[in-house]
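Sample intake sheet
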Amino acid sequence: MRTALLILPLLFYFTSHGQTPFAPIGSQWTYTQGSCCGPDSTIAVLQVLSDTVVNGRLCSKVTTASGWFGCYEVVHYFSVSNDSMYYFNEDLQQYQLLFRWNAVPGDTWSTPISQDAFRDTLDWAVSDTGHVIIGGVSLRTLTVDQSSRQWELFCPLGGVITEQLGGSAPFTWIYAACDGETYNGLRCYEENIFPMPEPPPPPPISWLNPQYPQCGLVTAVQELGGNEGFTVSPSIVFAGQHISITLTPGMVDAHVRLLDSSGRLVLEHSIPASGTFTLGHAGVYFIQLEINGTGIMTRRLVVL
């Protein structure tokens, strides 16, 4: 069983030299997912929800917004210090080195990982380094090989890893015996995706994998336009505050589902024209509206 995290408000945090978050609040990674022997079937979305302090170190708190994670241990806390990137091991209550962005070819390091009762160690070797320019920002790259010592867990990362963007798979561990929910590539990365009172400025980094025409999957289910379906007000609330769903004129008896950031169903019911509810726990939620089983519209809700 995991012990409690020591998380402190940023108000009481004094920045240490060289410490920075992994990525800005509002950063979002979208990955293709599918089975080993079938077509791409869904997307996994990870987001930086906030900056926080864990055991005295400033971290980016990463949450899952959609996707399949039954086989995976999603890592939630990342920190960068002196050109090294660390993750916080919630089982061991320790920081572990994940990447050294100032590495040179030939450098190696090891990363202890855990998932429930399983323990493993990842060994990394750098074969090449470089950089890419995205949105006028220079990001460093590492070409790495990675292997599991105990063959209990492994990380589906390998090849070229880019600062902030990551690689073809998210930073997460998977059971060696699990062959489902395969990550088939990073589709896109973007900053400033959270709703704001005013339109946010253009993101400094917005990257779309040239292999894909868009961030989302093209499916047979109709995606309704941005002005169709329903409205959620407000879209950023405090826990316990009333949230209203209002269908657009002419639309009645729609089916509504509320999902948390892991994809778990929280609420599900039909509403005639409008409805009100509250949520008691902070996090990122997704409200889906379905019309006659053929049209789906999703709204993002942030609870503070």
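Comment: Residues 7-208 form one domain. The CA atoms of residues 8 and 53 lie 5 Å apart.
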